């Protein structure tokens, strides 16, 4: 088994314009859900969020809107270090203004990313060989996809299925890659096992697979040449994406689309320790 060179994963990242198109669409979906412009009643601000048990819709939207403004400032101002961020709910004269407040932050982010030069020098999360503009376009797209799903789940009062989430395959696969190559394998990752173990992630309909080796003393790492994993996760790209983000329903977190083969306790440990 060999470790994966981080630079080798950059080739699979989507073009910036693909992220901007997706981000614009996701922002609009959140606005529509908040304002009830999609043929359903507006999302209740006090509704619980299944994927974020400590939040209601207002806290979810406040977080997402603040993150949009925060990331926009990093890119637009080419900030060299991490700025402070608060996720407190906005102070609005009229609660009905929440969709407009969120829309303003989304537009600010989209403009910052669209206007930034390709080689803008700005702070990024993680030590990863990806240009700042592309990094933030990718990161904010997946931030918004997942929280759009959270908002729709809050309105449905249950986790969405992978089909209901309507996440295009290319975005879902890219999100799996981001989660596994950055969050799950960072030095801060919480996943540790008492003995070495390998998790292989193999979405249906693609030849792309990822394998993560974990153990008791070091951060998890991506590896290649895996003969037989201890745990194999498969299903539609959206099911794998949402499952890894702990957004599927069911007592075991697999919804009706994620397949878990092998060490079920290792899957339970993933769900308990890998959070973004």
UniProtKB/TrEMBL annotation:
Residues of the MDMPI C-terminal domain: 170-268
A single cellular component GO annotation: plasma membrane
InterPro entries hit by this protein: DinB/YfiT-like, Maleyloyr_isom, MDMPI_C-term_domain, MDMPI_metal-binding
Protein name: Maleylpyruvate isomerase family mycothiol-dependent enzyme
Example GO molecular function: metal ion binding
Any single Pfam family the record assigns to this protein: MDMPI_N
Ranges for domain Mycothiol-dependent maleylpyruvate isomerase metal-binding: 46-152
Superkingdom per UniProt: Bacteria
Sorted UniProt keywords: Isomerase
């Amino acid at each position: 088994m060999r470790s994966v060179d981080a630079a080798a994963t950059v080739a699979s990242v989507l073009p910036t314009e693909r992220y901007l198109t997706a981000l614009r669409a996701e922002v609009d979906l959140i606005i529509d859900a908040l304002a009830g412009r999609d043929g359903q009643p507006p999302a209740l601000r006090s509704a619980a969020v299944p994927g974020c048990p400590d939040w209601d819709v207002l806290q979810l939207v406040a977080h997402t809107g603040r993150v949009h403004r925060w990331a926009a400032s990093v890119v637009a101002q080419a900030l060299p270090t991490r700025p402070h961020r608060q996720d407190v709910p906005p102070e609005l004269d009229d609660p009905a203004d929440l969709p407009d407040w969120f829309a303003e932050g989304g537009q600010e982010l989209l403009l910052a990313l669209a206007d930034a030069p390709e080689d803008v020098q700005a702070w990024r999360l993680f030590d990863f060989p990806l240009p700042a503009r592309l990094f933030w376009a990718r990161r904010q797209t997946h931030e918004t996809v997942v929280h759009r799903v959270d908002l729709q789940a809050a309105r449905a009062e249950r986790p969405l299925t992978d089909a209901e989430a309507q996440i295009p395959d290319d975005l879902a696969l890219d999100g799996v890659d981001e989660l596994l190559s950055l969050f799950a394998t960072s030095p801060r990752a919480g996943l540790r096992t008492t003995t070495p173990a390998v998790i292989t992630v193999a979405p249906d309909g693609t030849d792309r697979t990822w394998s993560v080796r974990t153990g008791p003393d070091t951060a998890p790492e991506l590896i290649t040449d895996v003969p037989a994993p201890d745990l194999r996760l498969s299903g539609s790209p959206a099911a794998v994406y949402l499952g890894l983000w702990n957004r599927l329903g069911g007592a075991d977190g697999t919804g009706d689309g994620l397949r878990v083969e092998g060490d079920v306790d290792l899957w339970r440990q993933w769900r308990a320790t890998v959070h973004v």
